[in-house]
Amino acid sequence: MSSNGSALKGSAPPDLAKQVLVQKLAQQIVNQIVSDDVIDDKIEEEENHNKEPTCCQMFYAPFTLKYYQPFFNDLTTKVIAQKLWASFFPFKATFFEIQDGKADLYGPVWIYATLVFAVAAAGNISGYLATPSNIAFHYNFDFIPTASSLLFGIAFLVPFAIYMVMKMLGGRHLHLTSVICIYAYAQTCIIPVCVVCSIPNPQLQWGALIYAMINSSLFLIVNYWGELEKNIQAKKHIVIWLIAGCQVVLLLLFKMYFFLYVYTNPYTGSRFDQLTKIVHTDHFFLHHHQQH
Amino acid sequence: MDYTNQKQPQNYSQMEDLKTLDLEESVSETIMRDLRMIAYKLKYVLIPKEQEDNGKELRNWDLWGPLIFCLALAMTLSFKADSTTSSSKSDVFAIIFVLIWVGAFVVTLNAQLLGGKVSFFQSVCLLGYCVFPINIEAIIIAFVGSYLPFVVKLIPVIICFAWSAYSSVGFMASLVPPHKKKLAVYPVFLFYLFLSWFSLIV
């Protein structure tokens, strides 16, 4: 820089040289200011990284999208498919191995959404098939808001209860999101059960719902068995009864609200009978009738 | 999109002239301009051959189209609702309306959380436009459904559902990384299944 200045000083008239010098000084000053700003910004950024989040920021974090990003980031279709498949085989405790520490919230949201659709549709189909053909069937739209409130309510409340109880009884290595996740995957078996329950036969419906209850409770208990054995030993029955009890209540609610209508009067013949053309023999019903 | 035959304004006074002209044009002209825009977008979204520029037209999103189709679907289904359901007409209308907007919101949110980089309203706009085939099937079934057996009713339902799902799946799948494609596509499928089921049932 200085050599240029001296070279210019020698060749050009003094005014021009002064102008050039002033310009160069101005440029240097501007560069200095800009770099100062840049350095200030960098320092601020580092400070922000090192600073603890303030109380306010921690409070409204769950309302931002970024808070939930980690739960959707490490997913692959393959892992979720494996987890869904594992939920149908409750005797092998492989869920936490497949999950490998990355709890996801994709499963809970979409399993419950599918369940709402399945239950509302199946409840209406079973009601439609169970009513006699001479009675008009009224599609019940109220199943959808009811099913949504019920399922999305238990999606959070029951895992929260299980989490609190296990934490109080001494469980370690528990995370609320992980409990929500595994509870949702435990409910996957109810989706095919709903499809089966759209047939209005009461024995079939009770059988399928009891299978769903046993499957989901076993899945939860078997996968948490390690945790229960190690940390909660003596009081693990409390957790087991809590899980099983919640599942029983849920499935009773399903039966009593969504799948309430079954064959009421075998003589008139429901639409299901007409569909499958079941032949009622006179002997059976005469005998049945005489007994009453 | 310049549907009027006016030149672009060269200076401020010309722009003011243009504004007064907009105010002075007849209401039918304004409405027709908006309707033409919606029809153009609709053809673009639903007929895959029109998409030569890989979906760049979708950047000009608008929510009028989705609103019109949502209202049309909700009104069609609630007109028929009185005779066949136990809920009142307003219940059905409310459920469909909320379902479409909350459903589009949740599906878009899902795609964003899975790592897709797309503007929120662009995706809602696309999902709303793809509700149009479901609208068609709802109208068909509302008018002729009572005369047809159930199996015949299923045919237009399945065709329109496949059409809606196919139009939006292409866009949605392109947003997320390849190992998460099916995860982003399934909610779209569930959304249109829900809506098709309604139009079949009522």
The helix content of chain A, as a percent range, equals over 70%
- Quick one: biggest sheet of chain B? none
What is the number of E strands of chain A? 0
Number of domains of chain A: 2
Q: Please tally the helical runs of chain A, counting DSSP H or I stretches of 4 or more residues.
A: 14
**Helix amount of chain B, in percent?**
over 70%
Shape of chain B: globular
C-alpha Rg of chain B, in Å?
20 Å
- Give the SSE string of chain B: HHHHHHHHH
Mean pLDDT of chain B: 81
Distance between the termini of chain A: 115 Å
Q: How many helices of chain B in DSSP terms?
A: 9
Write down the overall geometry of chain A: elongated
Transmembrane segments (chain B): 63-81, 93-114, 126-148, 154-176, 183-201
Subcellular location (chain B): Golgi apparatus membrane; Membrane
GO cellular component, one term (chain B): Golgi membrane
Organism (chain B): Paramecium tetraurelia
Characterization of this structure:
The complex is a heterodimer of chains A (292) and B (202). With 292 residues, chain A is mainly α. Helix content of chain A is 73%, strand content 0%. Chain A has two domains: 2-46; 94-281, no CATH class. Chain A is elongated and about 115 Å long. The termini of chain A are far apart. In chain B, α5 (89-113) runs antiparallel to α9. Chain B is globular, with a radius of gyration of 20 Å. Chain B starts with 11 loop residues before the first helix and ends with a helix. The model of chain B has no long low-confidence stretch (mean pLDDT 81). Chains A and B meet through α4, α5 and α7 of A and α5 and α9 of B. Chain B: It comes from Paramecium tetraurelia. Chain B: The chain crosses the membrane at residues 63-81, 93-114, 126-148, 154-176, 183-201. Chain B: Keywords: Membrane, Transmembrane, Transmembrane helix. Chain B: This is Protein YIPF.
